[in-house]
Amino acid sequence: MGTFPKFLLEPLGDQALLVRFGESFSEELSQQVLAAEAVLVRNPFPGLVETVPTYHTLTIWYSVPDVLAAQSAERARNAGNDLFHTEMPVFDWVSRQVEKLLTPAPLERNYPDASAGPAGGRVKIIPVCYGGEYGPDLEEVAQIHGLTAEEVIRLHSGACYRVYMIGFIPGFPYMGGLPSALATPRRSNPRVQIPAGSVGIGGTQTGVYPLASPGGWHLIGRTPYELFTPDHDTPTLLQAGDRVRFEPVTAADYERIRRIL
User: Looking at domain 123-260, does it have CATH number 2.40.100.10?
Assistant: First the structure.
């Protein structure tokens, strides 16, 4: 059973706290972030509003009035203890709650494999029509790397990706695991409008644009799946920690799936 790694607590405005586990992004750091989030979700402190995982940090949003009320109740319960006579700054009080939850013993008790994080997350298979009007940059990406379009498709669809975070626009998954042979800098001239469902490559990552939006990633395909449905209880198809595989489909299959959805 592992112990939890060292972390830093930093203020983020007056209603949030940042738990920092490192400065880069990797699967190991992602696992640590998600393990910490799982503990906080299972054992929320008074005033916890929301947790937001990223590459190597976990943002914790809290309600100041609820925290002040919790402090007041705490002082009332410990009226005879001098340690509770003075009101603690909100950030300090929240930091104390987080530190208590994220120390090794509570973590191991509440999340037995805390050092490893969730066991790989869910696995999602996403159909993609590569090239043509669906992936206008496929040929360019192939030329950059001295590959054929078919080889790019084979490499991209043959990998298993990890969702590190959701950001940029609602539902956009930043995914690691892109084969190094496909790592491609962003376009020098970003597009003003990218169709929803477009699958792109940006640096060492791949992602899917859930909404029509501007963007600078190289577009190699498009999925008929909707990645953001705000009227659903869970509005995003993907979540941090999920595993993703892309399944090549024909244009006819793409249109058939789109009509069904």
Answer: yes
Question: pLDDT, tens digit, for every residue of 67-115?
Answer: 999 988 877 776 655 555 567 899 999 999 999 998 865 445 544 444 4
- Find residue 9's DSSP bridge partners: 19
Whole-angstrom Cα distance, residue 16 to residue 50? 9
What is the Cα 142 distance to its own chain's centre? 28
User: Which pLDDT value is given to residue 111?
Assistant: 45
Residues 32 and 40: their CA atoms lie apart, in Å, by 13
Please give the pLDDT value at position 118: 45
What is the domain partition of the chain in residue ranges? 8-110, 123-260
* SS3 category, 145: coil
CATH no. for 8-110: 3.30.1360.40
Taking the C-alpha atoms of residue 202 and residue 218, their distance in angstroms, rounded to an integer, is: 7
- The runs of H, that is alpha helices, within the chain are 27-42, 64-77, 90-101, 104-110, 138-144, 149-158, 251-260
Alpha-carbon span 158 to 92, nearest angstrom = 47
